[in-house]
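Hello again,

I reread your note about wanting to compare the complex against the isolated chains. To keep things tidy I'm splitting this into two emails, and this first one only covers the full assembly. Below are the input lines as submitted, including protein chains and any nucleic acid or small-molecule components. They are followed by the predicted structure of everything together. The single-chain runs will come separately.
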Amino acid sequence: MKPRIVITGLGIVAPNGVGCTNFEAALRSGSSGIRFFPELEALKFSCQIGGKPPLTQNIIDANLSALQQRNFNANGILYGIISGMEALRDANIRPATAEEDPLWNLGIIFGTGTSGVDKFREAIYQVDDKKVRRLGSTTVVQTMASGISAYLGGMIGAGNRVTTNSAACATGTEALLLGYEHLVAGKARQMLCGSCSDDGPYLWGGFDAMRVTTWKYNDAPEQGSRPLSASASGFVPASGAGAYVLETLESAKARGATMYAEVLGGAINNGGQRLGGSMTAPNNTAVQRCIIDALSNSQVSASEIDYINGHLTATVKDPVEIDNWCKALQRSGADFPYINSLKGMIGHGLAASGSMEIVASLLQLKHNFIFPNVNAEDLHPDIENQVDSDRIPRNTLEIPLTTVAKASFGFGDVNACVIFRKI
Amino acid sequence: MTTERIYAKLLPIIQNYLPEDVSPDEVDPDKDLTRELNINSAHLVDVVLDVEDAFDIEFANDDMESLRTVNDAIKIIQKKLNQDA
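Full-complex prediction:
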């Protein structure tokens, strides 16, 4: 029999809340983390709003030594470290001291889309100015893709598999499932998983150029991210990090750990950029298959799903995602599960979106509530035709939850879906 | 610049790079930067960059190779300052 896997720790650095306590309060109150950035206006961005975590120097000092902060300019790694260390503390796991063996049974799979973009920009200017010798010793570790897992690995003393995954906007959900599979295979007892994303003009510029971000809400930032809405006009770029400790049930019980939920299973697939799928658009057959496979892998029937945390970015693709859920679950109208999108509050955290949304899903499951769909007062007619509007809460619901589905979809036609159950 | 003045200016730079388990009081001119003061060898290049900025000098590759102790650093800085003078 395969080992059962549970979640024993959470950490979050989100645009509307840093730390699980603040974040949960923000979820319940529907607090926006979207702001206007004069820098983006000065650089002539179409979309001049975004979501960045409100970090204070105190929070940074509590996580990074003065030496680590010297010449440090990789905000995604910073968010990842803070969330990862919170998850570890929340799980009541002590890092190894310098004199101890590493934690052989604790691994890390912490993903990102790209790393240290601002540091890389600094380096490019110095190299072009013939000052390569001035780059310092940390340019490599801040800009390597695996920077985040390497930083966390050193701070914790992880001795099992320590690596970084990358699957665009599905990165965080993929990280969780990769960690889950590693534990199910019996190769570790604890896995710290999650994802993080950089922010700022040099990361967001490419999306601005693609015209996939909204340009209509620069004067009303908090209304800009409108998943499920008829007036959705593109996503709002954001950043942050989410982290979770996965652990075998046996290990969690043996040390009396607090458990948020059981990971029943999940699926990762790819649409192959066929059948309507492309580098940037999903193959709907593959999306539906991913959801169906996740249910089957979890031995859960579609009728058991109480609540879905959607990908739902606030683009023209939201009605298509709802249609895919309806077809995969064979449920619609009043029978459809509750569904919401975190992106209405914090925007699209790109590589960090899946992990921040997983933390939100687990907090809701543990504490029995559903956060409101912010800015979805005018539901898209194609969505309202498929799903009863009360299935898309616009106000916070206090309601018992048992089984939850979370999916993320990303560029490269990647799909990932995970099923959680209350424990 | 006197050796004492160089050391006074160098000391806080070196102290920035000490690992948490080495006290700032342990720095003295004879100490080996990596082996005795436990400064991460990768950080030596950062020490050198900070020294270059503080003294407005530039280390050559062979200066880096001869840098082992705090005294070595003082000698290299002294030599560079004299060359510039």
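For quick reference: Chain A touches chain B through ten residues (CB under 8 Å).

B.
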